[in-house]
Amino acid sequence: MAWALAFAGAHEDLDAPAITLLVVYPLIDAVSSLIDYRSTLDGPERRVAAFNGVLSTLAAFAIGLAGTDGVTAVLHVFGAWAVVSGAAQLSVGLRRRGPELGKQWPTLISGGLSFLVGFAYNIQAAGDHPSLDVLSVYATGGGVWFVLQALLLGWKSRRPRTRTM
After folding, report:
1. Which residue segment(s) compose the domain that 42 sits in?
2. In this structure, are residues 50 and 40 in contact, taking their beta carbons and an 8 Å threshold?
3. How many CB atoms lie within 10 A of CB 4?
């Protein structure tokens, strides 16, 4: 959410500070994916976390390049990243919704919204007046869902588990 505030004040001109913030956003996601990867046992969820980390790192590089080409290019790259990473997040949320990790509704909502919003960014980029204003709203929403999921998982891990025989 701090990123959203910083970007809201810095994106009027697509200059070095704005491009730097645009690159940092997917890098934050890449680090989060690395943490998730390291804390997840082998299996499909771990592979999705690795995929998302690589995808976010590539997105950071692509957004940096797109930033030199203008708002339209940035929205197209950001939108493509949002679609693919949202699909990956949906996949993880669906796989982890079992009793061990509790319901993953914040992850499912966040992934679904990211998937849909990514298409909207590409539509906006093709329009007459593309704007980066929407990215601050996206980051704020993503931050809220991320915090809700962390709180939910923390609460679930503290609850005593009952054994069934």
Report:
1. 2-157
2. no
3. 20
Residue 82 lies in a domain: yes
Residue 109 located in a structural domain: yes
C-alpha 145/C-alpha 165 separation (Å) is: 35
* Residues whose CB falls within 8 Å of the CB of residue 8, separated by 6 or more in sequence, listed in order: 136
- Please write the tens of the pLDDT for every residue from 54-67: 999 999 999 999 99
pLDDT, tens only, 11-31: 678 888 889 989 998 998 898
Is the residue at 127 inside a domain?
A: yes
**Rounded Cα distance, 52 and 30, in Å:** 7
Q: Is 164 inside a domain boundary?
A: no
Number of domains in the chain: 1
Which residue is listed with tokens 């869902």?
Answer: 145
Cα dihedral across residues 118, 143, 68, 71: positive or negative: positive
